[in-house]
Specification:
- The protein is α+β, with helices and mostly antiparallel strands.
- Helices cover about 60% and strands about 15% of the residues.
- It is built from seven helices and seven strands; from the N terminus they run ββββαββααβαααα.
- Strands 3-4-7-6-5 form a five-stranded antiparallel beta sheet.
- Strand 3 and strand 4 form a beta hairpin.
- Helix 4 runs antiparallel to helix 7, helix 5 runs antiparallel to helix 6 and helix 6 packs antiparallel against helix 7.
C-alpha cells in the first residue's frame, strides 16, 4: 500500500497483510502491538487516497477508518483468522485501528494479450508463495499473525482464481474447442487436488501453536503441485488464448 506522507507529501510504500471483505479489503494498524500507530496510518488520516498493489493488480483506493461496532466486528473477524491479532491488542493500551480500502479505479492486469494476462496472474502466485516460504524460513519457532494472514490470503486468492476458470474460462474453451477436453479435464482434476492442499495448509496454519516445520512442508507441497499445474496450463492454453481470430 502506498500512502502520501502527512508531512513530506512524498509517497511511502509499505507491505501490509489484508483481509478480503466483499468488494473491499481490510488492513489492521497493529504495528506488532507497539504503543503508537504505524506511520502509514497517520499518512492515510491526512490523505485517504492510497494505491494498492495486490499481485499483478494495482489500483487506487480510498481508505476509511472503521469505528464503533463496525470496527469491533471487523477486528473480531481478524482474530478468528489468527489469534495473533488479539495478542497484539493485549500488548498495547491503544485500540488498534481497522481500515477499509475501497477500490475507486483499476481493473484487470495490464497485459498485451489474454495469454500474457494469464501468465501475469500465475507469476503473482509464484512470487507470493516464494515470499511466504522465505518468511517461514526466516521466522523463529512460532509464526506471526501477519504471516498467517498472508498464507490465508494466498489460499483465498488461488481459490477465487480457480473458481473463475472452472465457471468461465474452461466452459468457454470446451464449447469452442472440443479437442481440448482431455486438457480441461486434467486441469479440473488438478484444481481439486490443489484445493485439498490449500485446505490442509489453512488447517495447519490456523492451529493455535502451528509447527513451523509442518507449515513449511505444506507450503513446499503446494508449491511443487501448483508450479507443475501452472506450467502445464500455460503450455496448453496460452498459445490458444493468443491465437489470431479465425
Amino acid at each position: 500500500m502506498t500512502t502520501t506522507g502527512a508531512r513530506s507529501g512524498r509517497p511511502h510504500t509499505t507491505p501490509v497483510g489484508y483481509l478480503p471483505d466483499g468488494d473491499r479489503v481490510l488492513v489492521i494498524a497493529s504495528a506488532g502491538g507497539a504503543p503508537r500507530h504505524p506511520a502509514w496510518f497517520h499518512n492515510l488520516l491526512a490523505n485517504p487516497e492510497v494505491t494498492v498493489e495486490d499481485g499483478v493488480f494495482t489500483y487506487p483506493a480510498r481508505a476509511t477508518v472503521l469505528e464503533g461496532d463496525e470496527r469491533d466486528r471487523a477486528f473480531a473477524r481478524a482474530v478468528e483468522t489468527d489469534p495473533g491479532w488479539a495478542e497484539y491488542q493485549a500488548r498495547t493500551s491503544r485500540t488498534i485501528p481497522v481500515v477499509a480500502l475501497e477500490r475507486v479505479g483499476g481493473g484487470p492486469p495490464n497485459a498485451s494479450s489474454p495469454g500474457e494476462g494469464l501468465r501475469l496472474v500465475h507469476d503473482a502466485f509464484r512470487r507470493e508463495l516464494a515470499l511466504i516460504r522465505d518468511e517461514i524460513a526466516r521466522s523463529g519457532p512460532g509464526l506471526g499473525a501477519q504471516l498467517r494472514v498472508n498464507c490465508l490470503t494466498l489460499c483465498q486468492g488461488l481459490r477465487f482464481h480457480h473458481t473463475v476458470e472452472d465457471s468461465g474460462l474452461f466452459p468457454h474453451l470446451a464449447e469452442h474447442r472440443p479437442d481440448l477436453a482431455p486438457v480441461l479435464a486434467r486441469l479440473g482434476q488438478e484444481h481439486q487436488r490443489i484445493a485439498a492442499l490449500l485446505e490442509e495448509l489453512q488447517r495447519v496454519i490456523s492451529t493455535p501453536h502451528a509447527d513451523r516445520e509442518r507449515v513449511l512442508a505444506e507450503v513446499d507441497r503446494l508449491t511443487a503441485d501448483l508450479e507443475a499445474h501452472l506450467t502445464y496450463e500455460e503450455e496448453q492454453l496460452i498459445p490458444i488464448l493468443d491465437a489470431p481470430a479465425a
